């Protein structure tokens, strides 16, 4: 089993240090890892830093390999799905999911590729959209197509920036349940940003919390989600309700 790990990682954004001495991991294959933090904590910057879109000091490893030494067309290189996917195209959904395969040099699409796309559309519950043009999709539908584009490449690392932000509650649960299943079935390390703490408690294998550009805590959900963390990071007084299945966070008061 391989894992994603960060060692003393920094990042600059607009000439400002956004991430400072980030040490994170190992984040194992086959697990859904959630990144939490208040607004402007540096969560999106961290995903972009892992992906190589933003440069900085420090080392990022996949197993024993430096990510900076892995070619972008290698399956070991991360796939990254930003929050805003910018899909204003006359291309159909099915055609859009073919694009990453063609970009990797597979100009001859096989029957197996077609079957994989059809299966992926079904799992994401968007098979009815296969012939619809991207420009006619809702924000949530575009997010699902972007996730399909990433998954069709069979990556080992998948980085998702708020994949549930444009989805209703039902589809949030459906997508996170699916991502957790896919992580295990395909042995993928999935690192996703979420804002909903209760969803994170429901689905995360591990949770890491960013605070002012540094890791505040990282570990198992019940270890990380504490009243002290919620007060320090989110400036709220909250109760953590314990029940036989899963704990739940109820905010009592927000600090002014």
Structure in a nutshell:
It holds the Pfam family ABC_tran. By secondary structure, the protein is α/β, with parallel strands linked by helices. It has two domains: 1-78 and 155-218, Rossmann fold; 90-153, no CATH class.
Structure overview:
With 256 residues, the protein is α/β, with parallel strands linked by helices. It folds into two domains: 1-78 and 155-218, Rossmann fold; 90-153, no CATH class. It is built from eight helices and twelve strands. The protein has helices spanning 43-51, 93-103, 111-123, 139-151, 169-186, 197-203, 221-224, 227-234; strands spanning 3-13, 16-28, 31-37, 59-62, 65-66, 79-81, 157-161, 189-193, 206-211, 214-219, 236-241, 248-254. Helix 2 packs parallel to helix 4 (139-151). The termini are far apart. It comes from Acinetobacter rudis CIP 110305. InterPro entries: AAA+_ATPase, ABC_transporter-like_ATP-bd, ABC_transporter-like_CS, P-loop_NTPase. Pfam families: ABC_tran. GO terms for molecular function: ATP binding; ATP hydrolysis activity.
């Amino acid at each position: 089993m391989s894992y994603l790990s960060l060692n003393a990682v920094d990042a600059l954004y607009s000439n400002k240090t956004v991430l400072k001495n980030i040490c994170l991991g190992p984040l194992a294959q086959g697990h859904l890892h959630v990144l939490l933090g208040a607004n402007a904590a540096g969560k999106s910057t961290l995903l972009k830093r892992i992906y190589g879109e933003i440069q900085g000091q420090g080392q990022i490893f996949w197993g024993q390999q430096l990510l900076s030494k892995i070619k972008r067309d290698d399956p070991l290189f991360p796939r990254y799905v930003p929050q805003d996917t910018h899909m204003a195209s006359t291309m159909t959904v099915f055609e859009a999911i073919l694009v990453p395969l063609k970009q990797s040099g597979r100009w001859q699409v096989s029957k197996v590729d077609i079957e994989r796309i059809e299966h992926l559309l079904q799992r994401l519950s968007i098979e009815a959209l296969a012939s619809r043009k991207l420009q006619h999709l809702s924000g949530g539908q575009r997010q699902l197509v972007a996730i399909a584009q990433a998954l069709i490449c069979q990556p080992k690392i998948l980085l998702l920036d708020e994949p549930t932000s444009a989805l209703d509650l039902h589809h949030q649960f459906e997508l996170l349940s699916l991502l957790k299943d896919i992580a295990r079935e395909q042995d993928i390390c999935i690192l996703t940003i979420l804002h909903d703490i209760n969803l994170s408690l429901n689905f995360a294998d591990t949770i890491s919390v960013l605070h002012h550009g540094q890791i505040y805590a990282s570990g198992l959900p019940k270890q990380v989600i504490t009243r002290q963390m919620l007060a320090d990071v989110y400036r709220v007084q909250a109760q953590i309700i314990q029940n036989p299945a899963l704990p739940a966070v109820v905010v009592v008061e927000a600090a002014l």
